[in-house]
Amino acid sequence: MSVKVVVGAQWGDEGKGKVTDLLAEQADVVVRYQGGNNAGHTVVVGGDEYKLHLIPSGILHPDTLCIMADGTVIDPEGLASELEGLLARGISCDNLRVSGNAHVIMPYHRLLDELQETARGAGSIGTTRCGIGPVYTDKTARKPLPVRMWDLLDKDALRERVEGQLAQKNIILQALYDAEPLELEAVVEQVWQHAETISDHICDTRALLYEKLEAGADIVLEGAQGTFLDLDYGTYPFVTSSHPIAGGACLGTGIGPTMIDAVVIVTKAYSTRVGAGPFPTELDSEIGDLIRDRGQEYGTTTGRPRRCGWLDGVALRASARINGATVIALMLLDVLDIFETINICTAYEIGGKNYSMMPANVELLSEAKPVFEEMPGWGCDLGATTDYDDLPQVTRDYISLIEEVAGTPVGLISVGPSRAQTIRRAEI
Ligand code: GDP
Ligand code: IMO
Ligand code: MG
Question: Separation of 276 CA from ligand 3 center, angstroms?
Answer without folding.
Answer: 16
